Amino acid sequence: MLAKVISCAVVGLEGAIVEVEVDISPGLPSFTIVGLPDTAVQEARERVRAAIRNSGCSFPTKRIVVNLAPADLKKAGPAYDLPIALGILLSSEQVYADVSQTLILGELSLDGNLRHTNGVLPMVALAHEEGYSTVIVPEADAAEASLIEGAKIIPFNSLAQLVSYLREEIPEPEYQPGEVDEAAPPASTATDLAHIKGQEHVKRALEVAAAGGHNAVMMGPPGSGKTLLARTLPSILPPMTNDEAIEVTKIYSVSGLLPADTAIIRQRPFRAPHYTISNAGLVGGGHWPKPGEISLSHRGVLFLDELPEFGHSLLETLRQPLEDKVITISRAQGSVSFPANFMLVGAMNPCPCGYYGDPFRQCTCPSSVVSRYQRRISGPFIDRVDIFVEVPHIDYEKLADDRLGEESGKVRARVIAARSLQRERFHGTGLTSNAEMTPAEVRDFCQVEESAQSLLKAAMKQLYLSARAFHRILKLARTIADLENAGIIKAHHLAEAIQYRPRSQL
Ligand SMILES: Nc1ncnc2c1ncn2[C@@H]1O[C@H](COP(=O)(O)OP(=O)(O)OP(=O)(O)O)[C@@H](O)[C@H]1O
Ligand SMILES: [Mg+2]
């Protein structure tokens, strides 16, 4: 007899319906899965066989063929265990049920228990869009699945429980939402700005960067506090909106990085990959494309410490996503896109020895080495950076000062206020921060005070700014004005923004 169960695949970040057809016919016992399964799906045979036997049912000793349709869509991962097992039970008439309107997903363990499965969020979103009335998920993933409003979720902890339910021996298990923490995310464990001595202008630059989602690069001698400063960023970033949180959770869910006990990610991501990372690791890739670090830092921060060490070609691959906020990976089977709207923060020394341009210590690098080092970061890359700030050597008096600086909490409050102005401004446009403005929005929202126009003109000429740099200055000035709750951009806002352009060495 033939049985059909509906399940789901994930392509990129989107779900795609997969029909699991099971046919059992007389013949020599065999168990075949066709329809472009990967190794994890092939291995489902062993898990399903053991799970069925350990759930009080019998595994048919006949010829079993499982077809995953459509056949041209690659099926990866263990989420098909449960639909295949149920298909076999239906086909062998051990269970009778109409599951044509139910989407079923879940990985089985050998004893028949259901395990945490990756990619549940995009799959449930698809089920809801396609009008499936019910979604059956492992109990561990019920909280994640219930983020999709309006979808009916039935959580099960084992195949045996599902069988009993379909045989109407037990009532329908209900998902009991736990305490949903809608409030602000828990205080970040990042270093507090208050503990960093001096470097006030760098702290200010980070505040502006966080307020408008701007890219920033810090340059300075070894031990001046660049890494330390960058690591304080999570403590001043604004919380994510619900939609942003769901976007980020989807990415982590398909990457298998969402912990089983976490339904939704509320903290903005902060990713700091080492410079030995591969191209695919950074931008995403692999035979069956997976999100890279730039997508894992979507809506958060991608921190590249020791920027020049990443190498010229790796940094160049960031140019397109920095502009488009999305990365498209093409393969022979088709292309997938992952969102990559991140805030880039870089830290670097000015030269290999680290003291080029330092007023207190002589640089020992030959000038050819310095220029080769700095050439690893191309002009177009620097052109995409809004804020460029030098982190100088800090002197004893400042370091030995016992007084604490301004706390991250206060800075964060200002950042949140500036972001809420931006949310109002961009209502209905799909943009979330000043850094994302296109030339059209720059024209609409970045009006400069009459008397400040001449400053802008002089800067354009003297600093020989590109058109992109010109727009970047205006966007940055918009953020600086937002931090002061000023409607129109004034001369001192522009002056601060211009000051963040790279000069001298780079
Ligand atoms: N402004 C500061 N206030 C307090 N401590 C500081 C400050 N700057 C540096 N330090 C101390 O110096 C250590 C090294 O700082 P950090 O790692 O941030 O330097 P860096 O600029 O990243 O250096 P490198 O260029 O070698 O990577 C910190 O762990 C901290 O103990
Ligand atoms: Mg460092």
Descriptive account of the structure:
By secondary structure, the protein is of the alpha/beta class. It has a five-stranded parallel sheet. The site of adenosine-5'-triphosphate (ATP) has 15 residues, from helix 8.
Total number of strands: 18
Q: Which structural class do the helices and strands define? A: alpha/beta
- SS strand fraction: 15-25%
Hetero groups: adenosine-5'-triphosphate, magnesium ion
CA-based gyration radius: 27 Å
Main β sheet profile: 5 strands, parallel
Terminal CA distance reads: 72 Å
Lateral strand order in the biggest sheet: 11-14-17-10-18
Unreliable stretches (pLDDT < 50, length at least 5) are none
Work out the helicity level: 25-40%
Approximate shape = elongated
Mean pLDDT, all residues: 88
Which secondary structure elements does this structure contain, and how are they paired or packed?
Layout: E1 2-11, E2 14-25, E3 30-34, H1 39-42, H2 44-53, E4 63-69, H3 81-91, E5 102-104, E6 107-108, E7 114-115, H4 120-129, E8 134-138, H5 142-145, E9 152-156, H6 159-166, H7 200-212, E10 216-219, H8 226-230, H9 242-255, E11 270-271, H10 279-283, E12 284-285, E13 290-291, H11 293-296, E14 301-305, H12 312-316, H13 319-324, E15 326-331, E16 334-339, E17 343-348, H14 367-375, H15 379-383, E18 387-390, H16 396-400, H17 408-425, H18 439-445, H19 453-462, H20 467-483, H21 491-499
Parallel strand pairs: 3-4, 5-8, 8-9, 10-17, 10-18, 11-14, 14-17
Antiparallel strand pairs: 1-2, 2-4, 6-7, 12-13, 15-16
Bound molecules: adenosine-5'-triphosphate and magnesium ion.
